[in-house]
Here is the input.
Amino acid sequence: MGFVGFANVYAMRVNLSVAIVAMVNNTAIPHTNITEVDVCQTPVDNSTQVSEDGEFIWNEYEQGMILGSFFWGYILTNILGGRLGELIGGKIVFGVGVLITSVLTILTPVVARTSTPLLIALRVVEGLGEGVTFPAMNSLMAKWVPPLERSKMSSLVYAGAQFGTVISLPISGLLCQSSFLGGWPAVFYVFGVLGLLWFLLWMLLIHNTPESHPRISLEEKIYIQTSLDQTTSNTKVAAIPWRHILRSLPFWAIFVVHIAQNWGFYTLLTELPTYMKNILHFNIAHDSFVSALPYLLMWVFSVVAGQVADYFRARGTLSTTATRRIFNSIGIYGPMVCIILTGYAGCNKNIAVALLCGAVGLNGAVYSGYMNSHLDIAPNFAGTLMGITNTAATIPGFLAPQLVGYLTNGKETVGQWKLIFWIAGIVYFVGNTFYVIFVSGEEQYWNDIDKAHGYSRIHEAAHTGQYGSLANQQDDASHSRGISADGATTPTTFSKIF
Here is the structure.
């Protein structure tokens, strides 16, 4: 249900990226690059099919504003969604987030024809609803997923986003060119209704914890509780240890790489259909199928990578830290190379599409990388941590489309897109390099402050001989949880390094 939920979420998020191509009246928009030499030649089409222009006169900058406005609302509710997920459970928070998005998606055609500012406002509110989804799911998974199954489960659940993109892009393209429900409006009606149907099933089938599930077997419940060190007696929600979080370098490693990942990801997610149509000159139906292909590969690769990552972790071949570094590097450095090379493919459609497939497909490895790091370092605050990092990582969601709109407004050339791809590649490099240096796969001491204080008292008593050899055992345990022998943090915090 989480997989299908994210499929719905992303289908409703990206369908406008395709629909806007059919909504816009391109012949009414001035293009100063008509006489430029740095453009691809439009192929001669001898077919009798007439390509109809849309009804909205939005230039490239306005289109970037409309596509990016979703993230103005999305940025505001991430932390709220994570904390509410920890306090009242991820079921309600995630479900309501999808419900709000579904209702507003259905209303999009009417609002678009009423007023462009009103459409932007609707997209902002739609972002408010979707903003809670990832943090809420993280808090839900913290209650359900055993540590050695995190890579595969995260990949399976979050891969729904790619599956939704794969389904949404071609179906949206076909609906835009059809007469069903008026063409492009059908894109919003179909996916909005599917979201409503999913919400009903979600509320009937899903439960916040193993303890509250009426049909779970006793064996499974005991297994989950034991692996997560959870019982019905320790379910109290702790206060957020803000001071410790903000001093934690592993947290900042996740924070930085999340921003870098989203810059490249959203550059392609929101602008790939436009690049396909205006630079490579695919028609809208073919464009949507080709645009979906990279996300199909990302979906498949993310699921395979998750299985491989947990296989090596379970065998002891790789530590959790090494797993996160390796798979995140595959998922960031690989796309970095491919996306930069795409700019040099010029008008060669086959090479450009192959490189874009590599850029997006390899990116699926991040679901076995930093996307698990919130759960690794602090499962008790996984929702809040995801909310914090995803809030910052939402900024590229509206800056990247606006930058693309600014750079290509009246200058839809290969050279301008080469610059766009270089910017994304540099951001990828800086973000993942910081992550590789400072990330940790070990649970941090501040995930359970009370237990950490208990370790500190034991160490203090050990100096007086009160506990004898037991102190040595606790010393080993504390090191594994990010605590040094004197109760201070290990060198994964700013205070120890500086």
The first helix runs from residue 2 to 23. The chain is about 70% helix and 0% strand. The radius of gyration is 24 Å. The CA atoms of residues 148 and 314 lie 6 Å apart.
